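Recap from last week: sequence in, structure out.
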Amino acid sequence: MRPGRNDPCPCGSGQKYKKCHGNTDSHAVGTPSVEATRADVLKACDVRLSERLIRFERRHYGPHWLVDVLDEVGLLDENNDVPEAEMSLVIPWLRHCLRDDDGLTLADVWRRFEQPRLTPEESLVLAAYDTAWLSVWEVAEVDRGVGSRVIDLLTREERYIHDVSSSLALQRNDSVLGIVLTFETISFFGGVHAQPLPPRFADTVVREARRMCHVRTRPVAPAKLRDPALQLELMALWSVVVEDMVLQPPPVLQNTDGDPVVQTRDDFALLTHRDDVAARLATLEGVIAPAGEEEDGLVFVVTKSGNAMHRSWDNTVIARVVLAKTHLRLETNSTRRADSLRASVEEHLKGMVRFRLRSEEDIAKMLASPRPAAARERDMDSPPPEMLAAMRAFREQHMRDWLDEAVPALGGLTPRKAATTTQGRRQLAVLLKEFEQSEDRLPADQRIDLGWLRETLGNP
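Predicted structure tokens:
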């Protein structure tokens, strides 16, 4: 987004960039660029304009004008208030976009009174609002602490948003509903809904917005998105989808057999010497004998052939068995696996163990409860390099297998097959964005590059 040598300098001097800041502009880390500095000046001007508009509306229309207008257009909730997440978008929209019977915005009316006293920066900001529109902007790239490159999913126009706070909060492939103010090479949000949407929910908004605009595939004209009535519908739509996202039920976690995940532990008392139990246990089908003693005791792993979800897997680990001096413990991640293994152990070790009790833990509650400080510190410890490499290799292989698996989100098609249909390509684009978001949440040394996946599916 750096201006060309012959472009007007963003500082507002009126000179060409090469003759003004072109030779002195520093882009070193920690040094604001001339664009960022200019954006800060214009944003400060926008804040001052907002304060002056507040005083104007109260003086000319009374202290209740704002609430009355919000009620008239249906933007108040059941408590006669604007939801907090919507305030940063609704208030600028009300002052710069909503028009009265004469086709004038509040800012237009105020400008008639203040025209002789307007500064050049104030005139620039007001003009930027006049040409701006409300749309869904997807974050294509984030420069932490600097700004974000965003793409309008409706008009397909691109901007670089100079804003430190949003660059610290937004994630790649997030989408926001906002009004972007543009001053040649400089852009920032004039108003934005505080709640971004991830790809799947943003796609719902974009498809419905295109229907409202009567545009299927081509770019939507910015003029359509300047219509206050359409903007009002778009804000209402965004609020509905945000509510759907917030109120969606938590995902049902399943193991690779399709069973709900329930951490299950069955305890048995030993009726004979531990060595005899260990020797007998090692002959149970699927059991892998331990390589050595661990802190809790001898740890056996129970496997079965194949995997119901991943065809490339030779086997599936279904349980962990801990044999201590006086007891035996079976650890599984579903009730069905626990019942099956318990029956096998009681039959195979008949007369050697006696069942004592079962304990179960709801995985959803475990994930929701705060973890102890010591556990959090262990989570932050970086695994050894060889383990990280193995984890990345495993996940990359999983994604290669995924290409030929039936995916419910693709209507039961495999990704390769979905890539050959128009609807499938759209659904794939959303899925790939969600995968990229998941990778971005991981530490850098644990991420895998999914560029090859896009190339394979023809979804650059």
